[in-house]
Amino acid sequence: MKNNPIYLKGVNAVNARRSRSSKSMFRLFIGISVVFFVLSLVLNIGYTKAEGKINQMGTVRLDTATFASGCFWCGEAKFSALRGVLKVTSGYTGGRTPRPSYEQVCTGTTGHAEAFNVIFDTSVITYDELLEAFFMSHDPTQLNRQGNDVGTQYRSAIFVHNQAQAQKANYYIRQLTEQKIYQQKIVTEVTPFRIFYDAETYHQNYYKNNPGQGYCRYVIQPELEKFKHIFKEKLKK
Asked: Has 74 been annotated as catalytic?
């Protein structure tokens, strides 16, 4: 049992990602929110009708975003709570090994990151808002780690699906850097999306299905509560 990577993840990460105080988190939220609000108006890239996929009824415009922000259990739980997000899938991307297993990715030798695909309705939530949630959901200044989760598989990355996403991601990173929102350098990678491998079935909806597991109770739950408090106006009912 103790050699199981899932068990170790729960035990070793009990105090992960608790380095920032509530006051500093609030200041960070205010700084990021102001930057994203102003720049979303100035940048004005937006999504045109041609960039979204319209369903047969013509009422829902779907698009996909792909992020890596450490453990995919965390990312999936947070983004699934946002209004306009229709589906979040945990998986692996950005590496060399075809159809990798969780155990292979945990070795850090596949080049893949633990990531999650977000299918969203662009008429309800924008890519700008997802980027804001992404930066608030983890520490983008930690290189190849998040808290006690260490390795290139836990890197911070945005896998862009088109030029509009790439332009926005890079622009916001430059502005967050210039505004000195973070004390340390942002190390988030912006990489073209190529292929995404769904993680094993037991990883999907992991927090929802395993609320009593150690990592879920002591790492994901407190982070999810903070995330929901910050984005309380954008949560699903």
From this structure: no
